Amino acid sequence: MGLDMYLYAKRYVSEYSPGDKALRSELDKLTELTGGFPIQEVSCEVMYWRKANAIHKWFVKNVQDGVDNCASHYVSRDKLEKLMELCKEVLDNHKKANDLLPTGSGFFFGAIDYDEYYFEELQSTVTRLERLFSNPEIMDNFQFEYQSSW
Description:
The protein is an alpha+beta fold. It has one domain (4-149). 41% of the residues lie in helices and 19% in strands. Strands 2-1-4-3 form a 4-stranded antiparallel sheet. α3 (77-92) packs across α5 (116-133). It is elongated. The N and C termini lie close together (7 Å).
């Protein structure tokens, strides 16, 4: 038990877009498994956090309108860039942690200390977001959604 957090990349696969033709062809081969229903979307987990409650608190406040409901929420590219900037700023000056990315308590949400684990999660977030942003094929063709579970 505990706070698990996911960022998914999702993409609708059009029947009419020439750019989706090859992917659509491969997905159509799987329709036997779905009882004939076409596969409309592809999705993959691109980031995962475990008990990174400061990151979760940021998503709840900035993406979920303050509602912590374990539902899936669209995350814009701008929001992901802002999260990365904040993580970098706190990593550059640890004293800003409580002001910029404060921890948040919750049922099995993990420690609320600004300890080694806290900063490791920020660094990991920066590394993985930089990897996403360096891949225009993903950034230009996928939408992102955040979801938590606890």
